[in-house]
Structures are given as structure tokens and as C-alpha cells.
Amino acid sequence: MEILQEGHGELVGWHDPDEHRQWVRENKSRELKDKTMTVAEAVGKFVHDGDFIACGGFGHVRVPMALIYEIIRQGRRNLTMAGKTAVHDIDILIGAGCVSRVEVAYAFGHELRGLSPAGRRAVETGKCKVVAEISNAGYQWRFLAAAMGLPFIPARILMGTDTFEKSSAKIVRDPWSGKPVCLLPAAYPDVAMFHVPRCDRYGNAQIDGILVEDFELARAARRVIITTEEIVDEDVIRRTPDRTVIPFYLVDAVCEVPYGAHPTQMPYLYYFDEAHIREWLTLSRTEEGTKAYFDRYVFGVRDFEEYLERVGGVRKLNALRRIEQLRAPIGTPEEEGNG
Amino acid sequence: MEILQEGHGELVGWHDPDEHRQWVRENKSRELKDKTMTVAEAVGKFVHDGDFIACGGFGHVRVPMALIYEIIRQGRRNLTMAGKTAVHDIDILIGAGCVSRVEVAYAFGHELRGLSPAGRRAVETGKCKVVAEISNAGYQWRFLAAAMGLPFIPARILMGTDTFEKSSAKIVRDPWSGKPVCLLPAAYPDVAMFHVPRCDRYGNAQIDGILVEDFELARAARRVIITTEEIVDEDVIRRTPDRTVIPFYLVDAVCEVPYGAHPTQMPYLYYFDEAHIREWLTLSRTEEGTKAYFDRYVFGVRDFEEYLERVGGVRKLNALRRIEQLRAPIGTPEEEGNG
Amino acid sequence: MAETRYTPTELLACVAARLLEDGKSVFVGTGLPMIAAMLAQRTHAPNLLIIFEAGGIGPQVPVLPISVGDSRTFYRAVSASSMHDVMSALQSGYVDYGFLGAAAIDPYGNINTTVFGDWERPEVRLPGSGGANDIGSLCWRTIIVMRQDCRRFLQRLPFITTPGYLTGPGARAAAGLPEGTGPYRVITQLGVYGFDEETRRLMLLSRHPGVTVEEIRANSEFDILIPADVPESAPPTPEERRILREIDPIGMVIGG
Amino acid sequence: MAETRYTPTELLACVAARLLEDGKSVFVGTGLPMIAAMLAQRTHAPNLLIIFEAGGIGPQVPVLPISVGDSRTFYRAVSASSMHDVMSALQSGYVDYGFLGAAAIDPYGNINTTVFGDWERPEVRLPGSGGANDIGSLCWRTIIVMRQDCRRFLQRLPFITTPGYLTGPGARAAAGLPEGTGPYRVITQLGVYGFDEETRRLMLLSRHPGVTVEEIRANSEFDILIPADVPESAPPTPEERRILREIDPIGMVIGG
Description:
The complex is a heterotetramer, with two copies of chain A (339 residues) and two copies of chain C (256 residues).
Chain A: E1 3-6, H1 17-27, H2 39-46, E2 52-55, H3 65-73, E3 79-83, H4 88-95, E4 99-104, H5 117-124, E5 129-133, H6 136-147, E6 152-155, H7 162-165, E7 170-173, E8 180-185, E9 191-196, E10 198-199, E11 205-206, H8 214-220, E12 223-228, H9 234-239, E13 244-246, E14 253-256, H10 274-283, H11 287-299, H12 304-310, H13 313-324, H14 333-336
Parallel strand pairs in A: 2-3, 2-9, 3-4, 4-5, 9-12, 12-14
Antiparallel strand pairs in A: 1-7, 6-8, 7-8, 10-11, 11-13
Chain C: H1 8-19, E1 25-28, H2 32-42, E2 49-52, E3 56-57, E4 79-80, H3 83-91, E5 97-100, E6 104-105, E7 111-112, E8 115-117, E9 122-125, H4 132-138, E10 141-145, H5 171-175, E11 183-187, E12 191-195, E13 202-207, H6 213-218, H7 238-247
Parallel strand pairs in C: 1-2, 1-5, 5-10, 10-11
Antiparallel strand pairs in C: 3-4, 6-7, 8-9, 11-12, 12-13
Helix pairs in contact in C: 1-2, 2-7
């Protein structure tokens, strides 16, 4: 299997599988112990300047926003972030100066809502650096390789493009078919963060609906922080063990944060807060507006509950629940709220 | 990536990924259509002499036995079977002369219940040939490679052993770490068979409890036959889409067969029929006994329902249900039944 | 007269929908592709299987999803699965059609959605591949929906995010991409394009009502193959327009 | 006197159980390993994480499972997952201990469970690797439980199913197997063995009560390293025996 071609993007988050195994052996607890703590404690303990971080969910869906706001509040710097269909999370982290390096599958956009003023400005002025390109499946499979403890995994993507040229992948000749095949190196984030509907105090977490790439990402990351709508009794988990997506031995911190995905969607529970997302997209057009957003929603509030009050409180949250559960149409007055 | 070593086992069930894609395009329906049929029809239509077959489940758990008996009844010959912790299924298929070639991860044994007289006799007399060796994880990952449409997948197993030497794997140098890594070729069974608790008429199948390697195997196989305890309304599936393990476009036939896993265990529904398994293990010590077993339980009955009557009927099935649901201990008189 | 009072987006949606065959599968994103797939399901292709890259498979969508991971994309689905699952299905040949958007395209259907200017210090930074490279690499037939003008129909792209036919016939297979795949149609506000079998270059298949061949030529930096006799795209029927309003009642994608 | 009235299997179970540390993880099969793990949980290692190769993780086992995929292996588990998941955890370094049986072993702890005689036309065909090669390749510490005699402790195996230390120091890493892994203990009806750090050859650590060094030597084709002073294995305590009866009330594994 000769190497036919090599991408020249930065190799982000790769470890020698033996080195990673040793790290797991020494650092990941296999003990069923209470890991509950506050988001401030979790970020304080497990997110460090310079870390390579990634968020669960997809786009504006099931994103651990309480942790994102806390990272901004604690002023982390020089983070590298996985741009794995990262939208609001990466945009505000770049806007706040926390993230300065990105490997991009999808970033600097908000899907249908338009492009990210803050993220793009940072890249176009050199404040934030794109260190490598990849695709959504490519990132997902980089996490799968890491989840499996492998150095790489093959895929039939990227080949022939500049996305490959700026990736960290390599193309070799498949020894069976003789055809070129792309090898994606494993990606082990230093920290992955997830918001889930339910989790016990040990970290056994369940997710409802699509998993996106959370199964793989949770197994790829060295540290895993879970925020959950509710900390449930262990018994709830043990009654439905086939619903557990992230078992406790992968998890380092469990934080109970109702509405912890706001303003993103939590499937079955609450809808996107379009008004809030629009507010960010509007404010972030200027540096001043960006600063105003953070002053209002991060530095100007004590914690996530005060943030929730500020974005519209109970009335807003109830309205978002009704929309998500298809009991009210999009764009009702309550949804616009007073946020 | 030079090839450091090559196994000399037969390459079972590999296809060039492009050839497989083309086959899928032409042969797998993406249409939501009724696929219900009898087991006789399903085996008649989709299991051919010489095919490479594999069963879902694990050991004596959730094995599609009604299909296995039907393959014997229809007298299929020269089948190659995946010995992926195959126990009762492969043993009776070898005993009946249907399976003559095996790639072995685990075969010729019944776990704690002892070794297989029929299977071992066939191998030791040359009637059944072992064509390659592999391990449980190795087989599972061969199916994963196929499920992903890849030519191979890496793994850190087999290396240094005769299991590798008799496998179809290759060892190459990982271009990142420089260390040797094993590449497992994809395995695409011609037919994979599963027994599930519920499935709709289109083939959307759900499984309760552990999945073993069924997720990957269903996606690796070219043809998929599902037997189900119950054909449920599409609405049951659509209410819990995150429980669907095998979506309809993978499935070619759906057969309703209550107790279709007997004498193996159906999690939450019925326990192993130890008396029946013991009867087989006893009878199969001789060629005459083996023939007597098939005369009694396959050729001497019209269909699977008559088989169920013969193994002990309602009384036996109820007893197995009570044991599985922990409402009766193992070895109660009813369980011994009249089978 | 009534038939001609349609918006440009309505036309695009109808043209795209008509390309999708019944009993086949389509990988969709949000926006126009989603609307086209829903329109196809409600007209000629009731048995079109819709798959979303975040894991939604075969939903009965109650309301137009805003995001590819939106809970609407797996509402009453046959399976709410994972990206690994659906991307593997894509790689294994189970997906017939895929939709892509593009910031720029070249004569071979290669696409840029990453960057204009220097990659290291770009003039314009765009979101990157997302699932586009995966769809463009692995789908049997890719349909590209985009705006056409001279800054978007380029002779040479600053960055190839997603493969079309690369440098021409045979180039995809030589690169290692699955055989028999590639861009199938390009739909713009001016017309519908395919790719010439021999050269794998962009070729006009139909002009939208009222659009001239000259306009089509004028809005491309490269030469588009234009056959002698090019038909007009059929406009949206009243029935199609009625259904589009049903799908997108507040005009989120279709417009006012 | 009461303490010595134990069965050989009870002794093996106790010796195996005592090797398992609290707060660590163990990959178990059915039979003796399962019993040993359950005994450890009920004595010194309440926080021992039990994982089954078919997907059961951290169950609260109500009744001794008969099969590795038995629903008892995921009864009130923290996760009822898949082989892919648990084998990946194994490959990623999350599993501390793994149990193996063996039909034959060599001085380096390599194991045969595949075949005696010619592979193509065997004298005795055994079940093959099952999960053994995976466990022996990937677990941090492998514990082998087997019968010892001259047909099983062999100088050279007819077939190496599962890697021990292969040909000696450094051979596992050179072959590509994960660093720092390998056989940890061998438990037989005669004693407990480890592997000499320098040579990676089998070395006696303790003899079971009443067993002599001569018996141990006599029941091996190869030379076992035997230190000058070898302690006796501690017999099962009454408490351990009581718990074993609780775990296996009908003597399915432990015997009558």
C-alpha cells in the first residue's frame, strides 16, 4: 500500500493509539462514582487554554450552550475547535476570542439563517485560523477511528479535491481492489461536550431521536462533559439500558442544566429561539455589537438561569416548548418573547 | 504502506466496493412496499445453493431458527456460513449437510453446554471445510467495513498468531505511527437472517436489548430476511424511530414467526429450551441420531407451528416465558416439558 | 395567464422535484432541496425515500425543517439514526440523488463552497464542505442548485470543495471515487444543465421560460455546450404551486 | 477443618476473583470467569465494571448467565450496547482485565483453542478464537484459566489462536499489538502462574494447598520457572464459599 497522495492540512487531535490507550488507562475512571458538579466547576476542571474541543449535536440542534457560555465567561483562550457543522457555538466562541483555530467541515454559517458575521470576520482578518479542511462524514469517521482506538479509517471521500489537499488525510492503494482509497486519521478531542435529555449522576447518558455523531465523538474524546435537562435516578437508566448512548466510564462531569441547549433546539422539548439567534446575527455584524451581546448575556449574568430570565424567562421557554411539540406554529408572539 | 504480511485463509464474501454499489443500485429496493411472505417463500426466493450466509444474534440468543429449519427442509447445499459465534444454527445446518464451508470465529461448540458432536465430526472427517479463521471482533469489523461500503477496516488484533495466518487479513505499516496494523477485508454475506421482536410489513425492524453485531451485519449483507415475533403497524415504528435497528431498504423479506428463535433465547420473551438443545446434543452424537432429530423436528412436521407443538407446545412456551421473565427458576418441571 | 405568475424559486423547486424518480432515495439539505423532495412526494413520487445527513430517514415531515438536524427531519421517521449510518448508506450505494448548493462551479461540475482568495488568509470565507464533498463523492446522481452569473460559473475555481467530473472523463474513477457517480444536473435561475457524456462538460438542457441562449452564455465565464435546439423548462403548474404553498405556508424558502 | 472442604472449582473461582481490583473493568465470558467477577464484586471489588463481548455493560446480574449474549448479561445494565461498542472500548484501552480459557498453552502464554493436528484436516477441531484473540490482543491484563497437564502445557503449540508474549520480550509490540498488554496470570488446578519480566516465560507464583512443585513440573511439557520459595494459594474462606453458593445455587459451574 504505497502512499499516493498526502493532504497538507494540520493533523489536529491525532495520537498514537498506544499513547492514547496509556492515557485512558491512567486517566479514565472505570468506577461508578458521583460526577455531578456545576458548569463552572466542569469548565474550570476540564477545559484548558489551548485544548481541542468539540460539541455534540448538529448545527443548532442539541448543542451544550450553557458550557459554551461558561467557556466564554471563564475566558479560555487559543482553543482549537472541531467545525463539525458547528454554528452558533463556534460563532460565539470565535466572537468572544476563545477559539482561534478551526478544522472546518462546516463553520462560519448558520445554515438557512445565513453566514456568520463574527466567524467570517475573524477568519478574514486572520484572528482565527483555519488549520485544516474536512467534510461532515470525514469528521465523523475521524471520530469513529478514535472511538475504535485506531490510527486511521478508510473512506471514499475527499479524493480529487482541494478539501483533500488541505486535510490531514492520505490516499493509498487498497491492497484488495488496487484502487485509490482515502485514509482519515483518528481525531481525539481533548474535551467533548454534550447536552442530553437525561443522565444519572455517574454519567450514564441517554439521547432521544437522532444521534448525529455523538456516539462516536463521546468515545473519541479524552474528557467528556455532559449537561442534562435532568439528573435521573440510576434506576431510570437501568430500566432501559438499550437507550444509553454514553456510558459512565466515558464521562468526567455531569451538570444538571434545564434548557441547557438554548437557543438551540432540544428535540421533543424546545424549539430554536429564532429571535435570540437573530439578535446575535444582527449584533455580531460589528465588534461593538458583539461586545454588547456578551456583556448582556454572558458577563452581565450570574449564571445560566439568569441568562434564561434575560432571554425571555418562563414565558419564552413555554412558548418554545409548544412550538417544538407542534402545539403552536412558528413565529407566535410569545416565541418572539421579550428577549 | 507496504504490506508486511498476508493471511492465507480464503477471502470469503469480499466484493470490490464499486461492484457492490452497482449491485445495491440494481437490486435493493428503496421503495416502501409490503415484503411479508412465509418462511418457505423467503428461503425459496433468497437462499440459494452455494450462498454465503450469516445469522443475527449471538450464540444461543435471538437466532432465526425458523429460517434455519426451513433451509434444512428445502435441502440447500454447499452453503458457506459465517461462524460468528454460531452454535445451534451452524451445528444443525452442518449436521443436515447444508453447510459445507465455514469461516470460523467461533463454531463447533455450544459455549458452556459443550462441544458440537455433529459439527466436529463433519470437520474431522472432511465433510465440512474450515476455509478461514477470524475472531469475534474481527468478523464484526469485517461486517462493519462492508456496512460502510469500504474495501477494508483496520484493527489491532490477530497479529502474531496462526489465526492471522489462516485469515484473509493483511498487515501493513500505519503511515502515521509507523507501527504494524492489521487490515480486515470487508465481508458481504449473500444472505443475513435475523429474528426480531417487532417489524412492520415493509421491513422496519426493532430489536430490544443488546444489538451484538446485527446493526453492521444487516448493512453488510446483500439480502436480508427478517423473522419477527409480530408484524406491527407502521405507526408503532414511526412513534419510536430511534428504536429501529434495520430500516426497510435493507430488507428483502418479512415473515411473522412467533417463537421463531426457539430453542434459542429471545430476550425479554422466552428462555433457552435447554431440554431441546440437550436432545440435539445427545442425538447428534451419532449419524442415526442426527437423522432421527431431523426426521422428528424438520421433515416430520409441516411447518414451524407443528414443530412448536412437537417441542412441547403452549405449556413449554409458557414455561420458557416465565423463566426468561425471572418469574420461575431454571429447571422447573414445565420447562422440561414433553418435548 | 395565471400559470405564469410564479416566483423564480417556485420554478426551481418544480424543476428540481421533477428530476426525482419514485421509489428512489434522495439525500436532502434544508431549504430548496427539502421543498423539492416534498413536492416530488406529493406529486409523481409518493414513494421517494428522504434521508438527512444527521440521521433522519423517511420522515413524515409535519412542518418544513429549518436545520438538517431539526427534530422535524425525524418526525414519524422509519428510523432516527446517526450520521455514521446514513453516510455509510451513501458510501454503499443506497442513495440515488443528492442535492448540493454552490458558491461557484466550473465546466466539469466541480464546486467551491470553501473560500475565495487565498486559503490561508481569505477574501471571503465560506462554510466549507459540510456534507457536500460526501454527497458529491458518493451519491449516484448529484443535483446542484445555485445562482448563475460570471462570478459563479468559473473557468477555474479558487478551491475545489466537492468533486464534479474533476478534469474530465475517467478522472473521478482514477482519483478513487465510486464508479458511475457524478453531477447529474445543475439548476440555476436561467436554465437546467447536464453534462456531455463525452467531455463531461456542462451542457444546456433547457432554458427557463423567457430566458435566451444569449443570457445563458453571458452569465458564464466558461463556454457552456449549447445544443442546436434547446427546449424551455415547463413552468410550475397551478397544482404544483398550490402544494408548494402547503409545504411552505409562510414562504420561508419559496418567498412571499 | 471446615475451611478445607471446598471443591477445586471453588478454589479457582476464589483465586481468580482475588486478582480483580476494585474500580477496574473486566471482560468476562460465561462460566468460571463470570463467577469470579461476581464474587469479586461481592467481596473486595464492589465497583468492578463487568463487560460482556456481546454488548452487556455493567449489569446487575440476577441469575448466572448461561451465554455471553444471554439477557442476564444486560439485566439492569448501565448500557445494553453492541459488540462494536465493547470491542472498540477494549481496543481503546478501557478494559483492565480479560479472562480466557485454553485447550493448550506454551511457555510464553500463547494459547490454542482452534485445532490439534493438521488445520486442513484436523484430529480435533475446537471452536476457534471466539473473542479470545481480541481479548488476548487488546486487554491490559489477561487471566487464563485452564486445566494443566502434559497435553496442555506444551513446548510448542500446533496452532496459536491467541497471542501471549509470542516469542518473548518485545515480540508483541513488534507484531503490532498494543504496548503494555499481555497475559498476566495463568490459573490451573495446581497453581497460579505469572510471567517472568525478563524472559516472558511462565513462572510459578503459588501452588494450591497440598500441591507439590514436583506435581507442577510433572504436569508440563516445558520447564516452568519455579522460584526458590513458592507460597501456597490461600484456600476459599467460608464467606467466599457462602457467596459462591449464592451466585451459583444449583452448582451449574461450581459443581455439586
